[in-house]
Amino acid sequence: AVQAWAQAWSAGDAEAYLAQYSAVFQPAGEQTRAAWERTRRARVTPQQQIRVQLDALELVSVGERQARMRFVQHYAAKHLQDQARKQLDWVLENGQWKIQAETVLTAINP
Questions:
Q1: Which residues fall within 8 angstroms of residue 21, CB to CB, at 6 or more apart?
Q2: pTM score, whole prediction
Q3: Do residues 86 and 71 make contact, with C-beta atoms less than 8 angstroms apart?
Q4: CA 110 to CA 98: how far, in whole Å?
Q5: What are the pLDDT digits (tens) for 74-86?
Q6: Measured between alpha carbons, how far is 11 from 17 in angstroms, rounded to an integer?
Q7: What distances in angstroms separate CA 55 from CA 69, 71, 74, 84, 86, one per listed residue?
Q8: Strand 66-77, strand 51-62: pairing
Q9: Bridge partners, residue 54, by sequence
């Protein structure tokens, strides 16, 4: 599931990318879910030439319906490059793993 998320993002396929998120996902900060989705649709496009690579994947905990994964994310696009240690919390919904929460744990200086 985490690789499908990264591949959809890298392909600039906003609909496939957003489909990886649970119905209960709430973005960090003050932004509403609807505003977050509008922003993601505008940014996740083939024109942005996005490349997302994941390293050091670590399954931290897993239960019958929930899992937590940590990894290093390498992000590159037309006008931005960064690296961060991230955490995705997953929930099993209708037989599919979906992102329930997304957290940047640490920014990494390249």
A1: 98, 99
A2: 0.91
A3: yes
A4: 29
A5: 999 988 899 999 9
A6: 9
A7: 12, 6, 8, 10, 11
A8: antiparallel
A9: 73
The secondary structure of residue 48, as a DSSP letter, is G
For residue 110, pLDDT beyond 90: no
> What's at 101, amino acid-wise?
A
CA gap 55, 74 in Å, rounded: 8
| Cα(55)–Cα(71) distance, integer angstroms | 6
Any idea what the Cα angle at residue 74 is, between residues 63 and 48, rounded to 5°?
A: 115
Asked whether residue 109 carries a pLDDT value surpassing 80, the answer given is: no
Two tokens at 108?
Answer: 């990494």
Select from 38, 86, 27 the least CA-distant residue to 58.
Answer: 86
